[in-house]
Every structure is written in C-alpha cells, then in structure tokens.
C-alpha cells in the first residue's frame, strides 16, 4: 500500500513491522482531522490546489506543521490506542521516527507521498460512508 522507499526507511528505524503502517495511518488521520479545512484538505482533493506542485508542497507543509510531540499530544494518544503500544515514550519515539521518514519521503518523492494521503482520505470517506460531511469535512 505504501511506497517501497518509505517502507525501507521505516524498516531501518527499529519500529516493529506490525506498527509501521498503523503509525503512518495515524499521522495521516491526525492531519486530516486537525487541518481538514486547510492545506490538508487541498492536498487530499487536488481540486482546490492550483497545480500538482502545490498539492505536493501542501503535503510537505502539513507534515512539517506537526508540533513538538510529547506523550500528551493527541497524535501520540492515537498511536498508542491504534497500535496497542502501552509506553507513551516508545509511542512518541516511533511516531517521531515515522514522521521524519515521511518528511524525507515527501521531499524525495512528493508524488508518492501525495498519493498515500489521497488514498487514505478516500478510504476514510468510504469507511465513514458519507458521514464525513457532518464531521468538518464539508469543504472537500
């Protein structure tokens, strides 16, 4: 599902394979939830982005805008809940490593990273079966 280059970077990070895709999905969901009406909305739709290059920059910007992570950060709490990692420090460490790999990948291969975001958004819409219109995603 995710690109081979990103998977390779993450395999070298020490993050258990069973948690990697879940952490990526948590980061994407966090961005879609927290920035749904801003740049992340544009990167996920392409309609509002004037060019593909703008959408690629939106992906890079969204990843860079994630503030300093701590065990109390909503993203870390989501990662803990979705992965089952009980130690908040470990969840923070794994999330930081994943985020770094995603940022590097967005810079080196922006088209693939944009594709990951777009497919995640589409999956979220299908999973919610249209209810996303009532959850702050009405600008899509």
Architecture overview:
- This protein is mostly helical and 140 residues long.
- It has one domain.
- Helices cover 69% and strands 0% of the residues.
- It has 7 helices and no strands.
- Helix 5 (74-83) packs across helix 6.
- The two termini are 23 Å apart.
* Strand coverage percent: under 5%
Roughly what percent helix?
55-70%
N-to-C CA distance: 23 Å
Radius of gyration: 14 Å
Taking pLDDT < 50 over at least 5 consecutive residues as the criterion, the unreliable ranges are 129-140
What characterizes the major β-sheet?
none
Q: How does the overall form come out from the CA principal axes?
A: globular
User: How many structural domains in the coordinates?
Assistant: 1
Helix-strand string: HHHHHHH
Total helix count? 7
Derived from helix and strand composition plus strand pairing, the structural class reads: mainly alpha
Q: Kindly state the number of beta strands.
A: 0
| Mean of residue pLDDT values | 76
Q: In summary, what is this structure?
A:
By secondary structure, the chain is mainly alpha-helical. It has helices at residues 4-11, 17-34, 39-45, 52-64, 74-83, 88-108, 110-128. The longest helix is centred in the last third of the chain and has 21 residues, at 88-108.
């Amino acid at each position: 599902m995710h690109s081979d280059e990103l998977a390779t970077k993450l395999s070298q990070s020490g993050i258990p394979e069973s948690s990697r895709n879940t952490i990526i999905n948590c980061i994407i969901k966090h961005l879609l939830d927290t920035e749904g009406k801003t740049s992340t909305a544009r990167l996920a739709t392409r309609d509002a982005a004037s060019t593909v290059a703008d959408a690629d920059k939106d992906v890079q910007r969204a990843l860079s805008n994630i503030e300093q992570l701590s065990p109390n950060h909503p993203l870390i709490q989501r990662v803990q809940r979705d992965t089952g990692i009980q130690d908040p420090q470990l969840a923070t460490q794994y999330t930081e490593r994943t985020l770094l790999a995603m940022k590097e990948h967005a810079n080196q291969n922006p088209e693939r990273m944009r594709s990951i975001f777009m497919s995640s958004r589409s999956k979220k819409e299908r999973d919610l079966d249209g209810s996303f219109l009532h959850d702050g995603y009405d600008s899509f």
